[in-house]
TetR/AcrR family transcriptional regulator C-terminal domain-containing protein
Amino acid sequence: MPRRATLTTDAITAAALRVGDREGPAAMSMRRIANELGCDPMALYRHFPDREALLDAVADRALTGLPLPAPELPWDERLTELFLAIRAAALQHPGIAGHLAARPPLGPSARPLFGAMASALTEAGLSPEDGVRTVQALVAYLSAALAMAARAGAPDERWEQVKAAISALPGAPPGDALPVTGSEEQFRYGLGLLVAGIRAAGHGDGGGG
């Protein structure tokens, strides 16, 4: 284990991410992360003012290396690919996914992603002001979806109850049309609705869904 003499912000965030991946969000305390590093917990405060600042940096680290969509793709395809990739990256790290949902990161890994969002929305025909508001709405949707994804899985008893209630409505579609809460299927459908709304608002020429 590295000792205090070799302690860096990079080493701390890497250790915190390992702890979260292995043991879940409840384990990501300053004491537990320090134990992973073999140092005194107070040493962490030389690099981060508090636990929240550390978790912000860990959330940003979870997005490190996320590839940007190919610029030649239509704006709507780029936007869809980008949000699917962010969701997938966050869910690969269950210890930090909840924090990422509550406080979308603003660090060096996240900033290019926001830049790619802004570029796609400009191409869609939105004004800079509407682009900012749209990014905020998309990030809010992503955050809610990540929070729900923590409980995603096979249909449970509640899903069966909702399915039965929907099927009983006059003219209702089959109940199995209901996606599992927090699933990728549900996320893709909602994202498609948002992209369709952006297309209508900006009159863009996106060729994808």
